Every structure is written in C-alpha cells, then in structure tokens.
Amino acid sequence: MMYNFVIDCNRLKHRGPDWSGLYQHGGFYLAHQRLAIIDPASGDQPLFNEDQAIVVTVNGEIYNHEELRKLLPNHKFRTGSDCDVISHLYEEYGENFVDMLDGMFSFVLLDTRDNSFIVARDAIGITSLYMGWGLDGSVWISSELKGLNDDCEHFECFPPGHLYSSKSGGLRRWYNPLWFSEAIPSTPYDPLALRRAFEKAVIKRLMTDVPFGVLLSGGLDSSLVASVTARHVAGTQAARQWGAHLHSFCVGLENSPDLKAAREVADYLGTIHHEFHFTVQDGIDAIEDVIYHIETYDVTTIRASTPMFLLARKIKALGVKMVISGEGSDEIFGGYLYFHKAPNKEELHSETCRKIKALHQYDCLRANKATSAWGLEARVPFLDKDFINVAMAIDPEWKMIKPGHIEKWVLRKAFDDEEHPYLPKHILYRQKEQFSDGVGYSWIDGLKAHAELHVNDKMMQNAGHIFPHNTPTTKEACYYRMIFERFFPQNSARLTVPGGASVACSTAKAVEWDASWSNNLDPSGRAALGVHLSAYEQQAALASAGAAPPEIIDNLPRMMKVGAPGVAIQS
Asked: Which pairs with CB-CB distance under 8 Å and at least 24 residues apart come from 425-428?
C-alpha cells in the first residue's frame, strides 16, 4: 500500500500475519502485511532492486518468476521471492513489463530517482485493490476498503488489467486479449488442447513453500482442480517438502449435496479429506463479520462467502496457508443454469465476456477476501491467462446448451478419458450447483427467515428513499445493506458494489432472454431451475429414443432427481 502519510496498518493485518513492513521516502509510505507462501525466510517486503532506488510492495504470486529471472542475467536478486522480479523488470522495460507477469497480483512500485510510481492489478482482478484520494491531494492504494475509507474523500475499485502511472496521472489497460472485444471466435473445439491448457494452469499453481490443499465441493470445477492436482503433485517441490498426499477441504450443512459428492470424489482420488459442518445459525452469526471482510452488500456474494469464510478459518487452523479453488469456470463456459436460455451463440459468447469482466466484483472478491480474512491464499487455475485465451477462442456454438450437450459440455468432454479417467462419470456430468445452494438448501431459506426478523414492511416501502442507489428489493438484500452501511457509510463505498437485475447470477442484459425472469429475480440458481429441468426432460425424451449420448443417458436419473419443491438435488 502506498500513502502520503502513515495509517494504522493493523486494519489489514488479517491478510498478512507473517510480517509487517514499512518504508518511507519523503512524503511516500509503502506498508505491507505479508502472508509468506514463497521463500518465507527471506522474502519480506518491501522489495528492492540492487541500489534500493526502486521499491515494491506486492500482493499475489508471479508463477513464471523463474523464467523471468533468466531474462535478467545482469541483475542480482536479494531474495527467492517470486515478486522480487518486479523491480528489476521495471529497470529493464519501464512501465511496459506488466504483461510479462503470469500470475495474480496487485502492486505499487516507487521509483525514488524521480519520485514517480505505478500501480497495477492482475488481468481478471483475482487480487483485490482500491484507489483513493485525500482532500490534501494525497493518493492512497489499499487491498481493501477498510485501508482507506476513513481517510479518503473519494475512493473506488482499481480496475483489473489496468496500470496507473503518476507520470501521466491516469489509468491505461495493459491487458488486451482478443476476447475482450467480444468478437465471435471461430476456432474449432479441440478437447485435448483444452485439457492440456488446464493441466498447465493447475501445475504452475503448485509452486509453494508452505502446506497447501484443494477446496472440493464435489461439483465439476473443484473436482477437476482436485483431480489434476492429485495427478501432478508428486515430483513437485511442494511434495518433497510436505508429502505427495493431497489434502482436500469441504464445508456444508449436514447431509448437504456438496458434502456427499465431495466425499465420493475424495475417496476416488485418494485425498486426505477434511469435512466441516456448519449450522444455519453458525452462518447467521458470522454475517456481520463476512460483510466487514468481503466488503459488499451483493446478496449472492454474501450467501456464498459465508460458508467459505467459515471453511477458511478451519483450514488455517490446520496449518494450511494456500488452497487451489475452482472459480471462473462457469463464466468462461456458460455454466450457470440461465445459459440454457441463451438464444444463440453470439448472445452466449457476449454474456461469458461480460461475466469474466465482472468477476472481480463477485467470485474473485469472495475467494480472495473470504480466505484472506484468515491469512489463507486462494489460487484459481480457471482464471489463468493462457487457459482463458484457449477457452475463449472456441467457437461458442460448442458451448451452447442443447440436447446431448449439458452446460459446460466442452469442459466435461475434455476430461472424459475412458482409459485414464479423471473422475467418475456421474461426477463429471453432475448438474451445476451454486456454492450457496450446494452447501445445503436450508441455508438460503434460513437467511431469508432471519432477514424477515430485522426488516419490516415499512422499511421496504421506503427503501428507495433510504437507499436511493442500488435500492434493495428484498428484505434479505435490505438486511445486508444496513450492515454494510454501518461499516462503510461513505458514498464511495456503496458505489463499489455492482447492482442491476439478475436471475441465477446473470448480468442484467441476460435477463432479457426470458420475459418471465423479470418476475423472479432471485440471484440463486433456483430461479432458473425450471429451465434446467426442462432441458433435461428434452434429453430424457431423446434418451428414450436412443438419440442422446451414452454419458447423458447414464446420468439422467441424477440430473433430474428433485429433492425439494423447486430445488434440484444430486442423488
């Protein structure tokens, strides 16, 4: 973090309990709370170049740091930290080096030779970052709102894939992939190319000097992460230090779909599995802490962040400091249930682009802050830059959901290996569960009931006057908003949270796909469930006629089982 005067760094100490670093140069201050993952012994920050003229504080991981060091043969590195390359790359390439970094990162770099500085954030916004301005003209940068909201007149989210330069006084986008323009790609689907790209993304994230594991919900995405990790962890530096037996972690209400599925996947992969239970009351008791740490009032994000927040605490208590997780797949492959209604491949592709661009406000925010609240790091291989380029270049016709092609079919098929199976068939073709649904369906019902006790009808009638921006439309949303405003009352804070109509995690644009959705704007996957089951009924008709693929026929009983009114459950 970079400030023009010192603040209380303890506000962010939860993110980095291993070391507190502070550097001052004139009116510039760089403060850092370190969570030591790579080179815990000597990688304390701030980091410097050889003559200490260039100073850097970084949050994140640079996975290709060893390759980058080879491009800098005339430089002497002080530490083994992956982030040590940044100051030296700046010396060689100036502000244009950021695209060379392969990883997740937010950093501030101060060049004391001319008192200039740059700020940059990773391509998708996996790491969180905010920028603020004080009345005295000071510029503030922080990983969380709470690092600057009391001291700045205005602050906002620092946009992903961007760089701020004090020399120009403005932002510019350094991340410019082909898919960003939303032009429709035409590359034919190559399942092996997709599989190889994902395996590479997972393997590079096994770089660690501390104990680690995988988050395993038993759904497709986390199960693939666990499967690929289990295949490749042997022989890595991490395995030599901590053993090749992979640890997996799951959380849910007792007898929830995720717990059962995760247990089965863990048994299949042979992981050391840790299953944690929470009650609806446990979750409700944590809501205020969750909103304080996640810094949002978005309903879906809070629903999903709470069990992840509770799980992260348990994981850290076991001595684990890093986990690999499955965020990003649904955005890339159109995996949410509402994608059944995509009218054509052009609309589907545009929606996936919009979803990826917004990830920093939703799932990335949740994954980063729910884990960082307890000094735990989450890595997300589906959001690897190279993997996204491969996946988003596929002709979106292959991603369309239709008879014989369930959601994320291209990903499922890529890992459908008869000879060396990655997962059991019924897991590989398991129906999508939103995290907040999969941990147990009574979780959302319990939240709604709790909100009813705290928000009355009169409050809802006047919600538009109380909260004119992003006016809450449900009592649950109003309850979260009241808590958020208590912690972060500034107008700038409420503007950092996205709004707009949504059904089952859709963007506002996708709500237009079905006129009936405007009357059922529940952000949970339940709102689109009828669409989902209707599609499987079509596949069932094809199956009875022998026209559906074998993997669909084998798994239809699980796909179509209904365990509660309006709620699909895995058997």
From this structure: 425/551, 425/554, 425/555, 426/554, 426/555, 426/558, 427/218, 427/220, 427/223, 427/261, 427/264, 427/265, 427/268, 428/220, 428/223, 428/551
Q: Which segments within 158-290 are labelled E, that is strand?
A: 162-165, 170-173, 212-215, 247-252, 272-277
In angstroms, rounded to a whole number, what is the distance separating the alpha carbons of residues 493 and 145?
7
Please answer whether residues 391 and 189 qualify as being in contact, where contact means their C-beta atoms are separated by less than 8 angstroms. no
Q: Are 131 and 16 in contact (CB under 8 A)?
A: no
Task: Specify the residue for token string 């596949």.
Answer: 539
Measured distance CA(527)–CA(132) in Å, rounded: 38
How many whole angstroms separate alpha carbon 555 and alpha carbon 416? Answer: 14
pLDDT at 534 (0 to 100): 53
Q: Report how far apart, in Å, the C-alpha atoms of 358 and of each of 25, 126, 364, 440, 571 are.
A: 36, 11, 9, 26, 33
**Exposure class string for 367-377: b at 16+ Cβ within 10 A, else e:** bbbbbbbbbbb
First vs last Cα of the chain: how many Å apart? 48
Structure tokens at 567: 């709620």
Angle (nearest 5°) at CA 189 between 404 and 351: 75
Q: Can you list the residues of the chain whose pLDDT is less than 50?
A: 1-7, 535-536, 542, 552-553, 556-571
DSSP class of residue 187?
Answer: B
Instruction: Report which DSSP code applies to 31.
Output: E
Q: What is the pTM of this model?
A: 0.91
Cα 489 to Cα 498: distance, rounded to the nearest angstrom: 16
Q: Is 373 helix (H, G, I), strand (E, B) or coil?
A: coil
Tokens representing 113?
A: 């030779």
Determine which helix (DSSP H) or strand (DSSP E) holds 141, and give its type and residue range. Answer: strand 139-142
Residue that the structure tokens 């599609």 belong to: 535
Report d(CA 144, CA 8) in Å as an integer.
13
What integer pLDDT is reported at residue 517 of this predicted model? Answer: 80
Nearest Cα residue to 490 out of 86, 102, 132, 73: 132
Number of other residues whose CB lies within 10 A of the CB of residue 159: 17
- Inter-CA distances, 156 with 141, 165, 301, Å: 10, 16, 19
Instruction: Tell me which residue of 521, 2, 37, 36 sits closest to 238, measured CA to CA.
Output: 37
- In 3D, which of 493, 472, 58, 451 has the Cα closest to residue 283? 451
Residues 303, 305, 307, CA angle at the centre, nearest 5°? 85
Q: Which helix (H) or strand (E) holds 538?
A: helix 529-544
Q: What is the pLDDT of residue 36?
A: 82
What is the number of helices (H) and of strands (E) in the chain? 22, 19
CB 85 within 8 A of CB 100: no
Please, which residues have CB within 8 angstroms of residue 396's CB and are 6 or more apart in sequence? 184, 185, 334, 345, 346, 348, 349, 352
Contact 532/337 with Cβ under 8 angstroms? Answer: yes
